[in-house]
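Write out a sequence, fold above all:
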Amino acid sequence: MDYALQNMDVGLVLLDGARRVLALNPAAVRLLGERAAGLAGAYLHDLHPPSHRAKVELLLAAAGDPSAPASACSMMVALPGRVLVVKATALAPAALVAEGSAVTALMLMEAVRPAAAEPQATAIPPPEPLVKLPVEKGQGIVLLDPADAVYLQADGHYTTVHTADGAFFCGLPLSELEARLDARSFVRTHRGYIVNLRHARAVERQDGRAAFVMAAPGAPRVPVSRNRADALKKRLAL
């Protein structure tokens, strides 16, 4: 147990009194992966959908309450392939905590199961294919047919799914959707975009940059980054 604790990566994220990210250590970047990009300076609530913000606020409020139990100051966060334990604590005298100007520290640790005496190497199974896309609509979750998605756009650490009927919020990151959607139809064209080739109408170039023109109201254009252009040309025999 002591050896495991000595080798545990402990991430640290500091928040100011306005819930804005002041800094994060290298361990937090490793634990969060691509979600760490752009975190510095961001407001914590903007990184969560509205339905989850009340839970986050309760966690931060408990962090500044000396009488709060340890369980109220912690929460589990599920990420692709891992689960993180988040512990929150206020780093300020009681007076500053009371007036809401305290710095709050979020400690991130990966939740791991106890290792067996002689752990056996096991192959990591491929991610489960997505049969439906879970998106928010009103106060509930709607399960979209992936074929109805025209393109997907990164929205912070989450995703906006664009369809012919409008845009919907999806709580999964773009990287997970890329891994779980049918690669025959869904192609990453840019760091922030995935297109459904079944809805692609044309490829246009403007100012030296390529973009897909999608078959949807308003003929939206989805950018193609330069480092992905050659692979897409081969894919489409252009």
Q: What stands out?
A: The chain has a mean pLDDT of 83. The chain is about 20% helix and 35% strand. The CA atoms of residues 57 and 166 lie 30 Å apart. Helices lie at 2-6, 26-32, 50-63, 94-98, 174-180, 226-235.
